[in-house]
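sry for the spam today, last one i promise. struct tokens for design, 302 residues
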């Protein structure tokens, strides 16, 4: 019997903020490649995570959640989510079964049904109940109307509990084309080190900050160099919009900044398998989210 040809292709994750796209990706890969936070809109890059098995290779693209905002950064992040669909062989449209469909859902659906590519609706957080499952399914059917429906499967999962992930993988491979892999088997993400490090630091900031602060925070990695005794020296700047935010990020006697640095350093040492010296500074830059040059320097615009 002839061995089935290996497949490879791109599976793009789209959905509104906090539906669990990053948790799904990290648990499918068995490794952290995308930061996780209860704060919406934590993913700011289209991160590629690469999954390999005997069937072939899936290149997952974890996109920023669709977020309705007038700020340039948020508008850009949402547009990047939509544009990422163009490179997809298959789209994973993820929804949160514990939340009622919102305005962002209508924004996603207005474009997804027009795709001439297969779509899988991933119904996440089934561990919290399936109260709104029918609402999402009905909303999809209403959006599609009489047009050709690209939706192939509804698959309920719990990304957090790692339940149903195999069913999603099986469905993806069903619709990928025969192809050689796009990445070597030892590569699990294409996110540059500087962007990965900035994401880890941001994640630690989110765990210590008030709700109103995180979206005003960015992290720029200024320097990475290996010094004596193979210690990796990393210098990074935490950017905020106001002086009051700087004081909050630093904390009394710099307690918050020290804890953010400690937690980020420990995680990065595990990732890079070497000792790390992490030097953090906090800088005020008003309206950085509306400054296109700053957004380019931060890697949000490539």
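last one done:
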């Amino acid at each position: 019997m002839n061995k089935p040809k290996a497949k490879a292709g791109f599976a793009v994750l789209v959905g509104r903020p906090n539906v669990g796209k990053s948790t799904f990706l990290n648990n499918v890969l068995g490794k952290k490649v995308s930061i996780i936070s209860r704060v919406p809109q934590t993913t700011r890059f289209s991160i590629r995570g690469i999954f390999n098995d005997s069937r072939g290779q899936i290149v997952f693209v974890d996109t920023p959640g669709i977020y309705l905002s007038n700020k340039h950064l948020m508008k850009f992040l949402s547009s990047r989510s939509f544009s990422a669909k163009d490179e997809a062989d298959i789209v994973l449209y993820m929804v949160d079964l514990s939340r009622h469909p919102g305005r962002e859902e209508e924004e996603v659906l207005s474009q997804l049904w027009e795709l001439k590519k297969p779509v899988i609706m991933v119904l996440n957080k089934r561990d919290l109940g399936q109260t709104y499952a029918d609402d999402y399914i009905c909303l999809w059917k209403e959006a599609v109307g009489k047009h050709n429906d690209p939706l192939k499967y509804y698959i309920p999962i719990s990304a957090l509990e790692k339940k149903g992930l195999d069913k999603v993988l099986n469905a993806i491979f069903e619709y990928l084309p025969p192809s050689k892999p796009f990445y070597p088997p030892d590569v699990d993400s294409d996110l540059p080190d500087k962007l990965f490090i900035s994401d880890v630091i941001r994640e630690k900031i989110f765990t210590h900050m008030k709700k109103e602060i995180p979206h005003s925070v960015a992290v720029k990695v200024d320097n990475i160099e290996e010094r004596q005794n193979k210690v990796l020296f990393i210098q990074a700047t935490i950017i905020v919009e106001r002086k009051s935010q700087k004081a909050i990020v630093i904390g009394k006697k710099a307690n918050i900044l020290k804890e953010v640095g400690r937690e980020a350093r420990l995680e990065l040492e595990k990732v890079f398998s070497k000792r790390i010296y992490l030097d953090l500074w906090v800088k005020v830059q008003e309206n950085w989210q509306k400054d296109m040059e700053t957004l380019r320097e931060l890697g949000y615009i490539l």
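Strands lie at 7-14, 47-53, 56-62, 90-96, 119-124, 151-156, 218-226, 232-240, 276-284. ok im logging off now
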